[in-house]
Amino acid sequence: MRSRITGKISRQFKICLAALVLAVFFFTPSVCRAGNEIYVAGMPDSWPFEFYDEKEGTYQGVLPELLEEAGEAAGIGVKYIKPSEKDRRLDLAGNIQADVVWTLGLREDEIKDAGLKKGRDLIIYEEDGKEKSISLAYTKSMETADIEKLEKAFQNIDTAKIQGAYAAYAAKGDSSAGKVNWYLWIILGLVIFSACILVIFPAFFLKKRHQMELMAYRDDVTGRDNLTSWKQKFSKYIVEENRNRYAVLFLYAGIDVVSHIYGYKEAENALRLISDTCEPLIKQEKEAFTRFNEFYYVFFVEYTGIEKLKERIRNMQESVADEFKKKEKKYFLELHTGIYRMTSVDEDPLKTIQFSEVAMEYARMHVQDYALYDEYVERETISGYAMEHEAIHGLMHQEFIMYLQPMVSLNSGKICGAEALVRWQNPNRGLLRPNEFLNVMKRKQLTGKMNIEIYRQGCQFLKQEAEKGNCLRLLFNFTVENIGDEQFANHLDAIAEQYKISRKQIIVQLNQMVEMSQSDIYVKTIKQLRKFGFDVYLAGLELDRVFFNYLYCGINGIKLRQEMISEIHKPEGKVVVRSVVELCRKLNLEVLCVGVESEEQEKFLKDLGCTMVSGFRYYYPVSREVFSELEEDKQAGS
């Protein structure tokens, strides 16, 4: 009896197990990757792009063919998951039951929610007057190496071949699968369909091909000629007979600085505005211009005399500046143009750009509107390039060192702090002052890194002084490169924390810059610095709207420059300085007076109640070692 019951249970168990296996087999798509294979979730009915042919039992259409070809080129097998009646691409991809899907008919939010990664656009077509695109979307199961192989394989498929595949499917139709309307069996329908194939589709694809060719010669920011188009026009318009009548211009407008402060979107707006302004100033069919290396512009123009060419450049720069004023931009452009006059042997367009860029760099270095390329300009500019490489090397090897301009308390006469300055201990050129290298640092946008290096040295110095029992304050200079960085305040705070420095020992000095005062990043940075506990001083005082913006941000000190202090010997100067000091006192702003050189200046400032000064009357800038000796001597003397 027990044996019979056991046998019955065993048979029932086996039947249930078999049913479970069959259910898993039929209802769960298998996507275990064997070797170098990928599984694709397709659309059951999206002719002519992708559809399932029940008679053949395979997926057909433009997209499967392209994927098959790309897979063969990449050494990757392609297998389609058998479809259901509904489109289940997102379900299969979301459950990692497929490696790849086509994006046709999927919205961006659906692709994102499914955790898919889009590849490059492979087919671009027009629907209801709108341009649409199709690309592959990969699930997390897809290996990065396979993605790169597939995308590279697609790049090697000619665009015309893609369009041809599309046209071929459009011409064949899919009557056997029920994809073609029954009217195709009517003679009139056949005639209309044939007309579409013979006239409309070729015209459509020719139009799209023309659009793609235009895109290949259009700048993606300005919508005008890109460098490829510019070079083609250069070779077309400039021939041996007229080369001596052409010049290549290299325009710098400071858009790199705009991008750093206001973001790349505003920089793009500025680039488009420059293009719109320059377009009517160029002779069509003879001259051309284009955006170059992201933030610059290059032109080739005809000229009959150098003075007329210079006048034309001045007019062009004035037109650009005027347009920016009309648009009420928050910033000012820095316009410099390099000029290279072509010779009969100048055939390479890139060489002429290189020469004009050298002239532009010379114009920037010497703050000129324009400069002509010649041997002297090249020699001096190349020398500047050499120093640029030395500067990069110097930052990497700590050649930029901190010097200190001692600050004195007028109440005690003792050193109470210092302004951190910079010197370059160049192994080949010796000890260099800022006026000998700052232009180079600005051109290479290295001042921000240099300032942070000096700040780091300053915090290290403050820690060493604290270990000796000295509590000093250091003032550090920072520039646009620093303040425009959203992480600047956090960076300063982290370094101070590393050396266990009280934030009240650090004074962050800012220059009063009109364009910066309207930058949201700049305002946020100042407020964050004050929140961390840093003192923030404004260098100089200009009583205008900008000054109020700084006040609202929370600055708590003013540095009166040597230019103002030097006027104390005049009655008018005394009135101005007294008024400024009293104004600062009413606004609860600390005052640091620098450039004090005479007893008269010292006495006047002391009578006004100023407590912190610096200048040659007390000390010259010194190294860290000499500064420590000065402190010891002062303490010994007292």
TrEMBL record:
<dbReference type="InterPro" id="IPR001633">
    <property type="entry name" value="EAL_dom"/>
</dbReference>
<dbReference type="Pfam" id="PF00990">
    <property type="entry name" value="GGDEF"/>
</dbReference>
<feature type="transmembrane region" description="Helical">
    <location>
        <begin position="246"/>
        <end position="264"/>
    </location>
</feature>
<dbReference type="GO" id="GO:0071111">
    <property type="term" value="F:cyclic-guanylate-specific phosphodiesterase activity"/>
</dbReference>
<dbReference type="InterPro" id="IPR050706">
    <property type="entry name" value="Cyclic-di-GMP_PDE-like"/>
</dbReference>
<feature type="transmembrane region" description="Helical">
    <location>
        <begin position="182"/>
        <end position="206"/>
    </location>
</feature>
<dbReference type="InterPro" id="IPR000160">
    <property type="entry name" value="GGDEF_dom"/>
</dbReference>
<dbReference type="InterPro" id="IPR043128">
    <property type="entry name" value="Rev_trsase/Diguanyl_cyclase"/>
</dbReference>
<keyword id="KW-0472">Membrane</keyword>
<dbReference type="InterPro" id="IPR035919">
    <property type="entry name" value="EAL_sf"/>
</dbReference>
<protein>
    <submittedName>
        <fullName>Phytochrome-like protein cph2</fullName>
    </submittedName>
</protein>
<keyword id="KW-1133">Transmembrane helix</keyword>
<keyword id="KW-0812">Transmembrane</keyword>
<dbReference type="InterPro" id="IPR029787">
    <property type="entry name" value="Nucleotide_cyclase"/>
</dbReference>
<dbReference type="Pfam" id="PF00563">
    <property type="entry name" value="EAL"/>
</dbReference>
<feature type="domain" description="EAL">
    <location>
        <begin position="384"/>
        <end position="635"/>
    </location>
</feature>
